[in-house]
Amino acid sequence: MSRRFTPKVVTANRLREGDVVYLTADDVWSPFHHAAELIEDEAHAQMRLLHAMAQKLEVVGPYLADAKRGPNGPEPVHFREAFRTRGPSNYDHGKQADFPADMGA
User: Where are the residues of the annotated region Disordered (predicted)?
Assistant: First the structure.
């Protein structure tokens, strides 16, 4: 029996800065998880991943991450992805300094 597909978002790191970004429905890379396109179809998820992988001059390491529908957009399911929404953890800069804590998760 095949496993049921769980919703996904496409995530990667910006090539120049290394920041975590998420692919939106209108093909923009956003620093916000809640702005990502929530993909609920496996075939569409694979197409979006291929699209992201073709953007080698903009992002590196794109992959599909599990997500769930939330009141303000997609929310991370796993700790690792929730952690990535907050940016670097070694000191207060980037997303941690620029945006309220509730915007990242």
Answer: 83-105
pLDDT, mean of each 10-residue run, the chain (105 residues): 89 93 97 96 98 97 97 95 77 57 47
> What is the helix (H) or strand (E) element at residue 101, kind and residue range?
helix 101-104
> Phi and psi (nearest 5°) for 34?
-65, -15
Domains of the chain, residue spans: 8-104
- One-letter amino acid at 38 equals L
User: What tokens appear for 67 in the block?
Assistant: 């997500």
Is residue 7 within 8 Å of residue 69, measured between CB atoms?
Answer: yes
pLDDT at position 105 is 44
Q: Which of 4, 5, 39, 6 is nearest to 22 (CA)?
A: 39
| Cα–Cα nearest to 44, from 4, 9, 11 | 9
